[in-house]
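Reposting from the mailing list since nobody answered there.

I have sequence plus structure tokens for a pair of proteins and want to know whether others read the tokens the same way I do. The first protein:
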Amino acid sequence: MNNYLQLIASFFIIECGICETIDPLAYYDFENEEANIVRDKGPLGNDGIKDNEITYGAGPGVSNSSYPANESPAQGIDGDIETKYLNFARLNTGIIVSPQDSSIIKSISLSTANDAVDRDPTSFIIFGTNEAINSVDNGNGTEESWTEIESGSFDLPNSRNTSGTIVNLENNIEYESYKIIFPTVKGNGNSMQIAEIQFYTEENADGDEILSPSDFVIGIHTAPDIPAFKGAPLGGSPDTAASFNNNKIDVPDINLDNVINGDGSYTFAAWIKPTDLNGEKFIFGQTNQGIHNGIRNNAYLHQAHWGADTNGSTNLNELGLLPQSSASNYPANESPNEAIDGNISSKYLNFAKINAGIIVTPQSPSIIASISFATANDAIERDPTSFLLYGTTEQIKSSNNSSGDREDWSLIALGELNLPDERNTTGTVVNIDNQTEYTSYRLIFPTVKGNGNSMQIAEIQFHSENEGEGDNILSSSDPIIAIHAVGPNAETNRDGWIHAAWTYDGPTDTAKIYLNGKIDWQGSKRAPNGSGNLIIGGRNGGERGFVGLIDEVVVWDVEIREEKIAQIAEGSSPIRNILPFQITEITYSKENREFELTWDSKTGKTYSLFYNINLDEWESDIDDSIDSGGETTTYRFENPEGPEIKRIFFRVIEN
């Protein structure tokens, strides 16, 4: 075999290439990071050190508990039904109270306050502890170890300053302190309120009263935990991104002086989701002047070498990267409530028109199998013609007339909507292929029939079976808000994310700027001025930094080819050992004048095979539709240049 290979070598210098397989200097995916070290997930271990202000989310929520001085937690246990406790944090608000003596709670009584029925709580969770209370007033109420006693819902009367709502508890454990949380309220007001809370030693509010006006009591808001900042959906690690706000990651072991003082080259690439496109927002820089690549001149990708400044050709504002402000607005007598009131003569109208809709929380978790619609009274051009339906099990944090995106929503169904031109007409039913139970729903109407000034719908009803059969899921008392689902155009910029890359070839003094895998600018560029190591998130030691999310940062000390950058922008990994494929074996039969190539491959894919004799343009293809052989693919073909050729290169590309 060795003699055979030597014989081939005397006739050919055979080289092969496929999408770049050069290991990067550093690769940061921001997954599972600890403290301020940002680990290089590539092979070289060039870890970075981040500023404290760079965060990944995934932490405790921040309490928004606040109350008027004369409507404090103490007013909730003072025995006076004419006073009340009000908390502006609204959902998940409550109290921590320590009675004079330890007790076994068996029931709770509640009394309504004086105004705004939509502020009344509709559910509760009660906890007990025997630890000393370290939580502070208006905090999260989580400084102690709490045991849940019971949770559930209740139905306070709409009559004001009314007592008599009793909740019985199954509890036989004695506690020194209690925490009661009200996760939900009746409507979409600005607060939660309750006139009186009392605990009892027996069921049905019998036995001794446990609480007294002199008990220690504080207001709390158990704010939901902040989820991890989601990474780029098309990136190799979409679970987590890093949030920058003019902060930096210092990478001391990547010195860029060779680029400045020698003939060094570079490629910088990252997924970015900016929240500010104004002014200068640099992403890659050095500790002293030198390279500063990012966003500049009000929303252009920019490449600069402390001089030699160049903009890309695309203004990023044209991509709709930044969420717009919600334009949701409706007449007082044509509110979202009118869409679920069971009255076909009323309607919901929203002047935002396109992408207007609702968020609604039924009384109980449900599985939607169909939706029925009824047309409103006038202007056919206002009727919706398509829909998007989402579900969530999170508490609703979005406010009325907002964009309705503060929750994590799962798409259930989408499609066209063919409402009749007849007015005030029922009977349009859309079946939904869904087996998942949700607690709240987000229904958006992306399009309407004409060019009117609004969207309108008379009635919306969700059903537990197809064809509008089974139980009605919505009722007129369900919490409901209007929304206008403005925001990033997912088709254009991948849910607000773009992939940006900058390359510089030192020997030729040429450079390129890439946007979403395509060249946005290319041309001549001199070597940078300055000195020092790499920083990420700013320039010149950390100034004029990027604002927004960054994911999948990768740095090379060579110019990476256009094909590879395009592949990364479509989800390929930059790390060699997890590349989609590479050529693993090449042989040549002199007798048959045939090559045989073997490469790593994926089941179900097809591949194109190119050759080149000068390693310049890859325009000569041998076959552009080679079926995968599974985990490896072998392909045999005649020498395309004949036996006289002494040097030939091959490239395999996944279609």
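The second protein, same order (residues first, tokens after):
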Amino acid sequence: MIEGIIPSAGSTSVTSPASAQQPLGKDDFLQLLVAQLSGKLVDVPGNSFEHTQGETTALTYSLSKEASSTTIEVYNAAGTLVNTINGGGAAGSNLSNWNGLGSEGNPAGSGLYTFKVQATDSAGNIVTAATFTTGLVSDVLFEQGGAFR
């Protein structure tokens, strides 16, 4: 058991302090990790996202150094370029909002989309960009197929 964690849904008692227990075991550690992540929004490496028509979507990326020019290309599930937008160029984490419109100003339909980030510095050199997908943690899967929820 882990300090401060109620052992089961039907119990009202809280576990005792860690100092009064055995060392934290692997399963206890994993349960604590899952408890800390469940229900949280997290950014993970990736470039795909679900878009709902009429909504704005936040696109997250990281640049290896400051860029003087940053463009973000949004593609639909068929791989067709939907729109190109200008993004922030600060070194590190950046967030740009896509208004959900195509390049002609028409609303893009609901569905799966991807994005690519291209950035250059003031000398025209390529700046490395990493893209991230934001998601809500509902459960954690482990290599052996077990899940903690």
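Reply #1 (J.P.):
I read it the same way you do. The first helix runs from residue 26 to 37.
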